[in-house]
Amino acid sequence: MLVAADKMLKDALKGKYAVGHFNINNLEWTKAILETAQENNSPVILGVSEGAGKYMGGYKTVVGMVKGMIEELNITVPVAIHLDHGSFEGAKKCIEAGFTSVMFDGSKYPIDENIEKTKEIVELAHSKGISVEAEVGAIGGEEDGVIGQGEIADKNECKRISELGIDFLAAGIGNIHGVYPENWKGLDFNALGEIKGEIGEMPLVLHGGTGIPTDMIKEAISLGVSKINVNTECQIVFTEETRKYFEENKDKEKKGFDPRKVLKPGYEAIKAKVKEKMEIFGSIDKAN
Ligand code: 13P
């Protein structure tokens, strides 16, 4: 069932669990995530970066693919199609294309400009029942050409953005995209607690979910994180399993060159990874 993400995250905040946002890259990714959510009776958010949207043929193609799968694979759990780290123009395009949720990432702008632009996106999106994620304090690392420096968000800025009617907020607390470096200091739970104190009953989003230890994930959830974004980990397991397929010369056996066979081990690996994350996040059996 295709829905906006506001209600599922409010439910998650109340129930002290988090909904996984898994980035999609192609048809196999999308099908793997949707089927895993259905098998585990879990709500799910399909994250689409601007780069991945373009790669898949455009935002309308993505919406068509997801809607078709929801219908034909009988996916009854709540599913949101969510723009990840959208630009101002990108967010507007996704609102038009039929996304049910958008992130406008104005963290690169001075706070007043971020506020102005976020406000405009909220008005547009809410007029169509679409949920909005905003960001304060850039998330570190690099994702699809979007480079953030890894900051601790300013709690007063978080408060200002949270008052614009957004549905959930991404605030940097030392998290970064991609694999964490050896010397990573971990999440800043003091900052998380202070931010939460300023924004009240608004769900928080934790980006850079790849490689964050389980105990830190659980603590973050207990402090108000209700959406956790995972991308790199699925990419890594997909590529590892695909590599094995070729290393074991499976492509040379019978019709092993058929792309449906080539992509199957990677597809299964994504399913296992998504299930593992849903267990850690506590979203299994939370579809209602
Ligand atoms: P990772 O690639 O580190 O899992 O981060 C994903 C993310 O935050 C998407 O917005």
TrEMBL record:
GO terms of molecular function: fructose-bisphosphate aldolase activity; zinc ion binding
Binding-site positions, Zn(2+) 1: 85, 177, 207
PANTHER family: D-TAGATOSE-1,6-BISPHOSPHATE ALDOLASE, D-TAGATOSE-1,6-BISPHOSPHATE ALDOLASE SUBUNIT GATY-RELATED
Alphabetized InterPro entries for the sequence: Aldolase_TIM (IPR013785), Class_II_FBP_aldolase (IPR050246), FBA_II (IPR000771), Fruc_bis_ald_class-2 (IPR011289)
Cofactor: Zn(2+)
Keyword line: Lyase, Metal-binding, Zinc
Residues involved in dihydroxyacetone phosphate binding: 178, 208-210, 229-232
Protein name: Fructose-1,6-bisphosphate aldolase, class II
BP-aspect Gene Ontology terms: fructose 1,6-bisphosphate metabolic process; glycolytic process
Top EC group: lyase
The gene coding this protein: fba
Species this protein is from: Finegoldia magna ATCC 53516
Cofactor binding, per record: Binds 2 Zn(2+) ions per subunit. One is catalytic and the other provides a structural contribution.
PROSITE patterns attached to this UniProt entry: ALDOLASE_CLASS_II_2
Domain of life assignment: Bacteria
